[in-house]
Design goal:
single chain; alpha+beta; 4 strands
């Protein structure tokens, strides 16, 4: 068996990073403004030079270990530092200041999968995206 594969709860195997369609990932980032829901930084944030280096991940609000799923209402963009430091703490306890209200509002917004598909299509042939 390929060591680079991970097991999912239903016994199927998937390559790391391939648990969600690229177009759905792009749709979630677009819905939430391409920024971490916890700190507000993202790859489009040019307030300082370090912000351009922010890598977004998707965070499960209800961790999979506690029964969470991959639905749009359970996934939000988070910078790698925020996602890792939160671990499996309740997001309402982890999110600072007004973030919980903002996250709740974002989750009520519709997810536009067509925008995600258009974003992915626009990157076709991009040499950087081809390596991901």
């Amino acid at each position: 068996m390929n060591e680079a594969r991970t097991s999912s709860r239903d016994g199927q195997f998937q390559a790391p990073g391939q648990w969600i369609r690229t177009s759905k990932r792009a749709s979630l980032y677009e819905r939430d403004g391409w920024a971490c829901v916890y700190c507000g930084r993202g790859p489009r944030d040019l307030r300082d030079y370090r912000a351009a280096q922010v890598v977004l991940t998707l965070d499960h609000l209800l961790p999979r270990s506690k029964g969470g799923d991959n639905s749009a209402r359970n996934l939000v963009p988070a910078c790698r530092a925020g996602n890792c430091s939160r671990q499996d703490r309740d997001w309402r306890d982890f999110a600072p200041g007004g973030a919980p209200a903002r996250i709740q509002w974002l989750l009520e917004q519709p997810l536009n999968l067509e925008i995600g598909k258009a974003i992915v299509a626009s990157l076709a042939g991009d040499p950087i995206e081809a390596t991901r």
